[in-house]
Amino acid sequence: MGSEFRFGRDCERIAERLEEYVTGALPEGEERGGIAAHLDECRACREAAASVAQVGRMVGSLSALPIPARPGNWDGVKARLKTTPNAASTPAPKFGFRFWGVGVLAALCGTAAIVLPSPNGPLPTYSQEAARAAADTAPGPKWADKVPLKGDRQDLRGYSTVGTGGNTLTVAPAIFNKPADGTFPVVVEVGNNGPATRARLTIRPFQYTYNTLRQYTYALPLRAQGVSRFLLYPSVGEVVSGEAKVRLRFQLEAPGREQSINLEEPAGGPQTRVVYLGKRFPAVSLKRTARRNGRPFYIPSSMDRATSIGYLLPENAPDQAIGYDKTDVLVLSSDARQLNDIQWRAIKNWVITGGAVLLSDPELLKRPIVAGMSPVSVETSRLGTRLLPRPGTDVRDRLMSSMPNVPNPRLVRRDIGAGTVLYANFALDTEELRDWPGYGVLWDRIHWFRVGLKGHAYFAPKAGFRTEAAYHRLWQNGGGAGDDPFHTAFPRMEPIALYFVAYFLLAAPVTYFVLKRRGRLNNAWVTGPCVALLFSVGLFALTVRLYLLPTARRTKGVVALASGDPQGVFLGTTEFFFPRAGRYTANVSGWESVETRVGPYDPRERPLETVGQAETDRTEIAMDVTNLSFRRLYHRQSVNLNGPIVFHLQPVGGDRYRGFIENRTGQALTDATIVMSGWKAVRWRPNRTNLSGVETDRKPFVGLFQLGTLPVGRTPVDRVFRNPDETRITHDYRELFEGFISDRDYVPMPQFARMTLVARIPGGQFGLPLGKDVDRERNVTVMVNTERVGDTTDAVRQGGHR
Amino acid sequence: MSVTAAAWHPVAVSEPETGEETRQRAEEEIWLRLSREGDLEAFERIYRRYEEAVYRYAFRLLENADEADDMRQETFVRAYRSLARFRGDCRLRTYLFAICGNLCRDRLRRHQRRPESGYGIAVPEDATPFRAAQERDGDPWLGLQRATDAGRVRSVLGRMSASDREILLLRHAENLEIEEIAVILGCTRVSAPVRLFRARQRFKDLYLSLLKEEGE
């Protein structure tokens, strides 16, 4: 028994039972015997047992002492009890009325501050910066006033550097006259003295005080023991408006080589003067300013994206996929038959990395490389099966009935890598098709994958906040109208109610128990409101996201054209997403017609209702918004995919060029001049085996060739462009470009050589859509940029190799 | 020195419930029921029965007659308000003591002080029994059996923490059962004797140190 309570370890257990043992409350038995045996052995416990009676006697002696007499005051107690509610008549409030009352009041006040402003107007987010930003989106100065018409070569010079590992980086402008859209076409040469690798080139345009505007990162494949050349198109046009001086910083990193080349323009060095006109050249865009309550209201433009159309002549098509990195959709008409295999491979590589191609010429499919990326087997494919998998979309029947002239209309799609190739063998722009309710969906399906900007949050009613990418996935997987984020009334009460429930279920009891445990229940009237206020702040933080949700605008569209027909139409839609009530005014310009439709996102649910129509290029559309809602504008614009002027020259040997200029503007141009700028005095032979390069000094040559009147149609050009100073040969290009392995790699550097056609437009009208932006009163000169990039057959020659 | 286990078998202190107590509890049941219905006369009987015990207990804790009087009044007011929650699973006295103890603890905590202990009562100079016992037994504690002195006890209690003092007073001055003490202090039936054990040890230590101070 004695072993049951060992010395030391058992003293604690003894302490639990000692009281009962000493007072005799512990019944006779094994435990009592064990304690007795332990007491025999353990002196400390023995003393403790002795102290039970000892201390009891000492403390108990106090009860015998007289204490100051205070007779009980029942009357005083009774008086208080009469004013106190009886225990039975009102149940004892566990959590005082003040706690709940003031707490609820505080929570209601917090919520009211959130909810109440919404019916009359949104939270005021107007600010000076916002006003300026809104002003920036207003139509700016006429672009023709700002475009530098003459080459100012001093602005952008080539420069090079040598890295620590021996690699070289050379950067030179691809063209002299900066395009109006803020891009900086540059040719980057990277000399690599090691094995083949991939380098990463980072271009950081920054403005004035080293504010990085936007960063471009390119993965450049470097060939072994040689110089690789790339044509890149970094742009600051999206972030710079007006005139700005922008510098470029280039940083090259070659992995595994432990070296980095930093090439930065020194202070006072070459600076680039950017003229950004908010308009690409040429471009179709929708401009708008929004006003609310008479004041400019800044619309966070995280989703703003204008769709622009660029003209690409077949001979200018890049031969590397990176040349298309500013392109969203490539529409290939019958002119694409002129593309060679290398250019097709570039297109294919671009599609794989996320590009989109719309083919409309069946002849193209006869080329093996095109057939390889074609979505068809034309004969067996079923129309629309992959394009519109959702039920109820009777595209085929619709097409069949609306296009009796096309025996077997097809619109098919194939995903290659991250990109898509579409093939249509019919003209997409038919009135019958356009009236079809599913028409908008059709274009959504085609173009959604390109126009969506990731990371922007929609507020979907059933799924809470969700990124657009997530919403897109849901839409693609057959999400119905119930997932439509756009037709939900504001404000939304679910999250608010959720917070209330959480407060009453969680916060209030926890507060109560904490207070009770700490014996501070009488402070509940202070603590309760504080906790409620805290929850109100959380509630506000939750709902304020609705207010911060930007008013979004998105323009998208497609070029619709018949096969082989250069005349087409750009059909665009602009979607406005209004998370706040207010009166908005959209200034729309640059379109031939605009049609406003309002309705749910899914046209199957309810047809879009046409609320406005305008046949003008400038109109103002006022939109009164009372709820979170969604508007859509349809607009159309005729385009000529071949461009208003085709400028085609071919070398015919020596310094002689022969070709034509085709004026498709519909009217004769005057004072047409070919400006030869940046030409080096270089003689060459087209046959590479007989290559003998000649480089003279580094001063580019500028020449003007007057053509006079440029009538409609083709004007033949046959000119000899000679080396003006006949300087001696200084380099053998075979040594310089030893690393190149094919003819195509031997790309003449176009940055020093350029042919520009300058012509005057009677009345300032110059085709479409170019003429829209020309100041008709001032009879300005319009520059048509036809620099040639990546064409070995071009007469453009190497510039100085530094 | 060996002490047999039989020497440490004292008699039980608590007495079994007598017929008188049973009658009292039956009375209290009726008074409680009437009080819950708002009968102040019934509650007055409860007050008459326990006001002195509550006052005494409050005085022991606070050592201040005026404050103890306040606590008595407050205790009964609170008790009346919360009679609906009293389900009779402990004795009414225990319930009142629990309320009074909470109030007194709140009062002490709010004023951040210890009770005014009986410092005014002179501690007897004679510490001979302690020293004699120390010399005889080699154990000073055993010799203290004869050295019980109310003044010293109050002084020692004044130096103790409120919780230690309270549990000692409840157990030895008010002669409450362990179960009742556990209810009043809001602790478990198991932890109450341990707390009591430790309080007693501290009392002993403080008492010895007090004697040493007196000896010096």
Main attributes?
heterodimer, A: 802 residues, alpha+beta, 5-stranded antiparallel β-sheet, 17 helices, 24% helix, disordered N terminus, disordered C terminus, B: 216 residues, mainly alpha, 9 helices, elongated
Can you describe what's shown?
The complex is a heterodimer of chains A (802) and B (216). Helices cover 24% and strands 27% of the residues of chain A. Chain A has 802 residues and is α+β, with helices and mostly antiparallel strands. In chain A, α15 (494-517) packs antiparallel against α16. The N terminus and C terminus of chain A are likely disordered. Chain B starts with 18 loop residues before the first helix and ends with a helix. Residues 1-17 and 115-137 of chain B have low confidence and may be disordered. At the A-B interface, α1, α2, α3 and α4 of A face α2, α3, α4, α6 and α7 of B.
Which descriptor suits the 3D outline of chain A? elongated
Helix content of chain B: 55-70%
Order of helices and strands of chain B: HHHHHHHHH
Q: Which stretches of chain B are poorly predicted, pLDDT < 50 over at least 5 residues?
A: 1-17, 115-137
Secondary structure: number of strands of chain A: 32
Distance between the termini of chain B: 29 Å
Mean pLDDT value of chain A: 54
Number of helices of chain A: 17
Strand percentage of chain B lies at: under 5%
Count every helix of chain B, treating DSSP H or I runs of 4 or more residues as helices: 9
Biggest sheet layout of chain B: none
What is the number of strand segments of chain B?
0
Q: Provide the structure class of chain B.
A: mainly alpha
- The whole-angstrom Rg of chain B is 20 Å
Query: In one word, what is the shape of chain B?
Result: elongated
Find the biggest chain interface: A-B, 57 and 75 residues
User: Structural class of the secondary structure composition of chain A?
Assistant: alpha+beta
- Span between N and C termini of chain A? 102 Å
Mean pLDDT of chain B: 72
Low-confidence stretches of chain A: 1-7, 87-95, 113-160, 174-181, 208-212, 237-245, 256-310, 376-395, 436-491, 556-566, 600-605, 678-700, ...
